[in-house]
Amino acid sequence: MIDSYKTVGENTYEMIKKDIIFGNLKPLKKLKLNELKNNYKTSISTLREILSRLSGDGFVVYEEQKGFYVSPVSKSDLKEIANLRILIESHALKYSLENSNPDWEGSLLAAHHKLNLYENKLLKNKTEERSNWKRYDSEFHQTLVRNCNSKNLIELHKLIFDKYLRYQLLVLTFRGSGSIEEHKKLLDYSLERNFKKAQMVLEEHIQNGIIHANKSF
Amino acid sequence: MIDSYKTVGENTYEMIKKDIIFGNLKPLKKLKLNELKNNYKTSISTLREILSRLSGDGFVVYEEQKGFYVSPVSKSDLKEIANLRILIESHALKYSLENSNPDWEGSLLAAHHKLNLYENKLLKNKTEERSNWKRYDSEFHQTLVRNCNSKNLIELHKLIFDKYLRYQLLVLTFRGSGSIEEHKKLLDYSLERNFKKAQMVLEEHIQNGIIHANKSF
DNA sequence: AATTACCAAAATATATGATATTTTTAAATA
DNA sequence: TATTTAAAAATATCATATATTTTGGTAATT
Predict the structure, then answer these.
(1) Which chain A residue is nearest to residue B52, measuring alpha carbons?
(2) CA B71/CA B137 separation, integer angstroms
(3) Measured on CA atoms in the order A127, A130, A135, A140, is the torsion positive or negative?
(4) Is the CB of B48 under 7 A from strand D?
(5) Is the pLDDT reported for residue A60 higher than 60?
(6) Which of A106, A138, B60, B160 lies 20 to 30 angstroms, CA to CA, from B47?
(7) Could you tell me the maximum CA-CA distance found in chain B, to the nearest angstrom?
(8) pLDDT confidence of residue A1
(9) Backbone dihedral region of B193: left (phi > 0), alpha (psi from -120 to 50 degrees) or beta?
């Protein structure tokens, strides 16, 4: 219902973006208009619109007269993204904590609860669906920054986070109990409004993520 | 020659973006496809592509089934943008200084020289062209961050800076000798690789800009 | 064998016209 | 005044057509 209400363009945009994030469209793959037209059942003009948007988001690269292709990935790019994520997410977290209020604290608790249940499930059963884990992880981190009271900052965070997400789904794996503990600390320090400690855990959390990644690249 | 080589879409993209930044297309103005088609002499499909890109850049807002309109401006938005600019530009500056080298120092000196000449001219003659000033100012600040060695960071900075630029051209005016001094200090501390002092000046520089702006909003 | 030149096929860039929907506007009604 | 309704305007999408550019392969040249 919610989904089918959207326009063709919007739906296809989501689909292609998802396919890039989940790796169904591999890095550097040439995105030929005719091919896409057949695969996604939309017109060329709509597709060009979509690809233009995606190139703004950084998931697609566009070259004049040559067309579009899926953005490349690299270890150094991941490092850059991770550093930016630390910068942006920390900054937003700081303001979220300053503006802390019961409503927000409640939503953070809720988001953590769901994430925690899922991570524990993953710990026991490795075959669990990975995309769900990422959904809860995203939700938790996005809740962390949501209270910062700056629309621009939230948007920027989403931009970076999505790029990071792509790497998570391409090369990062669930780190197990380490990640669980970090999330718990992140929650606790946030509820205590202890920015310094929360920030340290966050930075560690993201750094640990990419250390883990180095193996699989 | 260089310009006319580009595609119609690219040229029109630049034109519309410029018209928004310079205020020829006023905030909240509805961007009707047919109207734009007549004014910019391009097809609807090309225009939709362009507007899609611009909405990714944040200069245009898109609403499903309702179309496109020029992004609004507000004092609080300017404040958010300024804060983000401080965050991003400081961070990038830090790394630029760490990676400092003669080449970069040279280009920074050059950029400052041109900016300085122009600002002094402005000080004497208020009627001078304002868009030129902004060009040199942009160039100087972009040179500051260029050496940070992170493509993502540079792109992010450009994104924010352009949004800031729009406000500069819409509501900010030349502050006179204050700005000149700040730029000079920014240059000197950067050449000394004194991040702490350079950062402080930068923050002050941007803050002073928006204090000045409050009057005209 | 490597490089260059050239041609055909593929792909992009752009424009236009057609159709279905949706939104907006303005008029009509209660 | 508020609500409803009908007409007009605008968006969303697609298909098609054309010019230009890029690509890939073959032949010619060094």
Answers:
(1) A53
(2) 24
(3) positive
(4) yes
(5) yes
(6) B160
(7) 55
(8) 36
(9) left
For A133, the token pair is 């884990």
CATH assignment, B8-70: 1.10.10.10
In the structure, how far is the CA atom of residue A36 from the C1' atom of nucleotide C3, in angstroms?
Answer: 36
* CATH 1.10.10.10 residue spans of chain A: 8-70
pLDDT of residue A2: 39
Calculate mean pLDDT across residues A70-86: 96
Minimum Cα–Cα distance from A44: chain B residue: B45
**What's the CATH architecture for B75-214?**
Up-down Bundle (1.20)
Reading across the β-sheet that carries A60-63, which strands appear in turn?
Answer: A30-31, A67-70, A60-63
pLDDT digit string, tens, across residues A140-194: 999 999 999 999 999 999 999 999 999 988 887 778 889 999 999 999 999 999 9
Strand D contacted by A96 CB (< 7 A): no
As annotated, the residues of chain A forming the CATH 1.20.120.530 domain(s) are 75-214
Residue B147 pLDDT grade (very low, low, confident, very high; cuts 50, 70, 90): very high
Which of A49, A56, A152 is facing B84, going by the closest CB pair? Answer: A152
One-letter identity of residue A191 = L
| Total-model pTM | 0.93
Residues of B in contact with A17 (CB under 8 A): none
**DSSP one-letter code for A6:** S
- Averaged pLDDT, A106-117: 97
Task: Quickly give A64 CA vs D24 C1' distance in Å.
Answer: 20
Distance from CA of B136 to the nearest CA of A (A): 26
- Distance linking the first and last C-alpha atoms of chain A: 40
Q: Output the distance from B135 CA to C19 C1' rounded to whole Å.
A: 47
CB contact under 8 A, A52 and B56: yes
Structure tokens at A19: 């396919």
- CB-CB neighbors (< 8 A) of B88 in chain A: 87
Strand D positions closer than 7 A to protein CB: 10-17, 21-23
* B77 to chain A, closest Cα gap in Å: 8
- Is the pLDDT at B8 greater than 80? The verdict is yes
CA of A13 to C1' of D13 (A): 14
Task: Show the tokens assigned to A44.
Answer: 């060329």
